[in-house]
Structure formats: structure tokens, C-alpha cells
């Protein structure tokens, strides 16, 4: 696992945090069947000073570590779970079947043009995405050891379904 928390060197604290976790467990059901469980988690959030116009630094309005809009930033998270069964069908043939699930959340606040479009409230935008991903993958591997060089043939099929719960792009003010 990993945990990071940094304030950054900008005048407005970045308050960056990141969390990563990975877990994996393999279980042999027999001499020819292995079951693999994998889970991951990732979360991150931040406040960003964003891009700044060079003219604002040159004029002294802000320093090069300053911000025009210090409410930019965001947060994101992904959680994954996977179960895979690998079966050795013969000395040279392996069948792999995997099911997986991913939960994905994303929220970003940006302000690329500051007050160009809306001189009173500013041009900040909010982007969000929230989805669940379901999938299945099967693969058959065949080794060809009788060839002059070792070869492996792989055939397979996969299915993925993205259930999009919320995608949004909207104007916002001061996050």
C-alpha cells in the first residue's frame, strides 16, 4: 500500500493526497487449476493552482507560485476486483477465464480562461464521471514446442459493459 500527503510549494496549499492498495491471493484447487483473486483501490484528491498567465506574473499581480483561481482541483477513485481461473488442459494448453468489476469516480474543477466568458463569476467548469465496469475475458493458450523456435498461439473473447451513472460538464463558481 501507499499513502502520500503533500502541501506543495505553491502559495495556496495543494493538499494533495493519494492512497493506493493492492491485494492478491492465489489458490491452487488442484495440480491443474489455479484461482486468483485480485483487488486494488486508488483514491486521490488535490487543490491545484492551475495554469497562470505569464502577464499576471510579469505585472506583479501574482508570483510564479501564485494562483488566479485557487479553487481548482479535484478527486478521483478507482476500485477493482478480479477473479481468474487458470486451467492447464494439457502440457501445452492453458485456459484462462476472468471476471472483473471496476468502480470509477472522477470530479475535476478547472478554469482555463478565468474571466474571459463571464467577467463577474469567472469561467470555472466542473467535470464529473461515475461509472461501474463489468467484464469477462476468456483466453486459450497453445504452446508449439515442436517448432524451430518456441511459439504460443492465443485466441480469446472478451465482454465489457460500462454502466455510466453520471457524466457532467457544467459551469460552477468557487467550487
Describe this entry's structure for a reader.
This protein has one helix at residues 54-58; strands at 2-6, 16-28, 33-48, 72-90, 93-110, 125-144, 151-171. The chain contains one helix and seven strands. Strands 1-2-3-4-5-6-7 form a seven-stranded antiparallel β-sheet, with no helix packed on it. It is an all-beta fold and 175 residues long. The longest helix is centred in the first third of the chain and has 5 residues, at 54-58.
Residues in helix, %: under 10%
Q: What oligomeric arrangement do these chains adopt?
A: single chain
Instruction: List segments where confidence is low: pLDDT < 50 over at least 5 consecutive residues.
Output: none
Question: Cα distance, first to last residue?
Answer: 30 Å
Task: Count every helix, treating DSSP H or I runs of 4 or more residues as helices.
Answer: 1
What is the beta-strand fraction?
Answer: over 45%
Form type: elongated
Mean pLDDT: 92
Which class do the helix and strand fractions yield? mainly beta
Give me the count of strands. 7
What is Rg?
24 Å
Biggest β-sheet description: 7 strands, antiparallel
Strand order of the largest sheet: 1-2-3-4-5-6-7
The ordered H/E elements are: EEEHEEEE
Quick structural overview:
This protein is mostly beta strands and 175 residues long. The chain is 3% helix and 64% strand.
List the helices and strands and how they pair.
Blueprint: E1 2-6, E2 16-28, E3 33-48, H1 54-58, E4 72-90, E5 93-110, E6 125-144, E7 151-171
Antiparallel strand pairs: 1-2, 2-3, 3-4, 4-5, 5-6, 6-7
